[in-house]
Every structure is written in C-alpha cells, then in structure tokens.
Specification:
This protein is an alpha+beta fold. It is built from 10 helices and 8 strands. The longest helix has 24 residues. This is AraC family transcriptional regulator.
Length: about 325
C-alpha cells in the first residue's frame, strides 16, 4: 500500500494491485487512531486483537469505520483481488475528538441484566461496517488516481468528513440534508447512511473462517444452486458439519442463516438501485411479493423504502 503522511498524523493510503494471498502474516501493533476503509474491489480479512474484520466488495464497494483507543495487535489473514483496490484514511483520536463528533456505539443492545457496553471513546476497539454512497465511492476513485499528494490529502479529508458526519447524524437520528442553504439551488451531497454492511459478519462477534467461505460461495453461485448440500460441497465439508458449525457460531439453524444471506444479497442489490424483480431473482425469489414480505420481516424495510434510500444517495 502506498501511504502519504501529512502534518497532524493524517494519512491517506491507496492499495491497487492484484493480490492472490496474504503477503504479510506478521503480527504488528496499531496505535490509537480513527480509520476509514473503502474497498472498491477484492476481499480482505484481518484481525485486530481478538476481533476479525471483513471487507468484501463482491456485491459492490464496502466500507469500514473503526476507532482504536489503545495499542492493539493487527494481523492480515486473507487478501485477494484482481485487483485488490482499497482506500484508507487514518487520523489520531485526539484530532477527531477536537474537530468532529465521535462515532456512536455499534454494540448490540445489552441483555436485561448485563452492564451497558462501553462507548466508542472508552472501548478498546469500536467497529462499524457501512455501505459507501456513490459520492464516497467517487471520492475513493479520485483519491486512487489523484496526481499529487496535496490533491490526495484534500480528497481524503472530504471523505473522512462525509463518513464522520454520517456517523454523527445516525447517532442523532437525523435525516441527511438533501438541499443547500436557503436561497441556493445547488444540492449538498448527503453523507453516507451508516447502513450495516450486511454481507459481512457482525464485527462485534468473532467470525469463523467457514462462515466467511459460506458467504462467498453464496454470492458467486447462481441463486438456483444455493442449496445447503451444494454449498456444503463447495465449502469442502459435509452437510452435517456445516449445519453444526453454523448453529455453534450463530445460534441459528442453517436454513435460517441461508435465508438471511439470500435476503442480504437482495438488500444490497436494491441499495444499488436494481429493480425489485431483478433483486428478488438475485436473492433466489420468483415472486416480488414473497421477496418483499421476507425483507420486511427480516430487516423491517420494504423494497420501496430501500430503493428510496438508494435514490437519495444519487447526486
């Protein structure tokens, strides 16, 4: 990765080359910082302390916002892509705290008798996947091809500002602005809604490599072949072993997990503007009605609501 370092401990990195495996497996230490990753193509999995993080652009660009509050071990586990294209922005936590609101806690709601989770400023590690809006993807592409370090810095600051602004608005429950100030007609690009990247494991629950493999096989196989026996064979294990491992790692049966994963494929297809019937077919549904009902049950959103959100991101 090519990294440009600027005053104030601000860094912009660009990785854009074919990768077929992990080239560096050594454990390193990451100092406290706030980081934004946007993966434009390829797949990457790495570990921070005991937390596994995944970026997978098989269905479109993937984003990750994280905050490290104490030195943590870091190790790459898998990198591949033709090419693997990733933009990274990093800045000190003090810099962000002084200029922008900190991101909200991404921890799930605690159990009834559990203590509340630590906030992002106090937890050792805070992680939030998100789906980059088209504007952020355009910024990432511009950073990738920027002709000078100064232009790369300017674009990197803009990208960082968009993601942090979306985080703050998401925490406050505010809708992104759609128009400019009073008296102007030029629209302001809305910040990225921090929709969880539903094609990767929950970042707060360590994932098993087998589940990562299962997700990849589901996304590269035609909908009609995404049966449990076929997926188990593609993963190189028996069906019963797959069922047992999925139940152990997710607390859900294999059928429920496969159904959710199919719906996630449809969700992301809609979030990128695909017509409902095409998204339903990609998810393995023959009826838009049954697809819409299943989406509503699983995520609380109808296809029309997802398409509306996607339309608001286009500028």
């Amino acid at each position: 990765m090519s990294i440009h370092r600027y005053p104030g401990n601000f860094r912009v990195g660009v990785l854009d080359e074919p990768r077929a495996a992990v080239l560096e497996t050594d454990v390193s230490m990451l100092e406290p910082k706030v980081m934004v990753f946007i993966l434009l193509s390829g797949y990457q999995r790495f570990r921070l302390a005991t937390q596994r993080c995944v970026l997978d652009a098989a269905q479109g660009p993937a984003g990750l916002l994280l905050r490290i509050n104490r030195p943590l071990e870091h190790q790459f586990e898998e990198n591949h892509g033709a090419p693997l294209t990733k933009i990274s922005i990093a800045v000190s936590t003090e810099w962000v705290d002084g200029l922008a609101p900190a991101p909200p806690s991404a921890s799930p709601e605690p159990a009834e008798h559990s203590p509340p989770p630590a906030g992002p400023k106090h937890a050792d590690l805070w992680v939030q996947p998100f789906v980059p809006a088209p504007q952020s993807c355009n910024l990432a592409q511009a950073i990738r091809s920027a002709p000078s370090p100064m232009q790369r810095m300017s674009l990197g600051l803009t990208l960082l500002d968009r993601v942090l602004a979306a985080s703050a608005q998401s925490a406050a429950g505010e809708a992104p602005p759609l128009t400019g100030p009073t008296g102007t007609s030029r629209p302001i690009p809305p910040p990225d809604p921090l929709v969880p990247d539903l094609l990767v494991p929950d970042p707060l629950v360590p994932a098993h490599p087998l589940l990562d493999r299962l997700r990849r096989e589901m996304r590269k196989a035609p909908a009609r072949t995404r049966t449990a026996p076929a997926l188990a064979k593609a993963c190189g294990i028996g069906l019963r072993t797959l069922e047992r491992q999925v139940q152990q790692d997710t607390g859900r049966g294999l059928g429920a997990v496969l159904r959710r994963e199919r719906l996630l494929i449809g969700f992301h297809a809609l979030s990128r503007g695909m017509p409902v019937m095409q998204a339903a077919s990609a998810a393995g549904y023959q009826s838009r009605t049954s697809f819409g009902s299943a989406l509503k049950r699983e995520f609380g959103l109808s296809p029309a609501q997802i398409l509306q959100q996607a339309a608001r991101q286009i500028w």
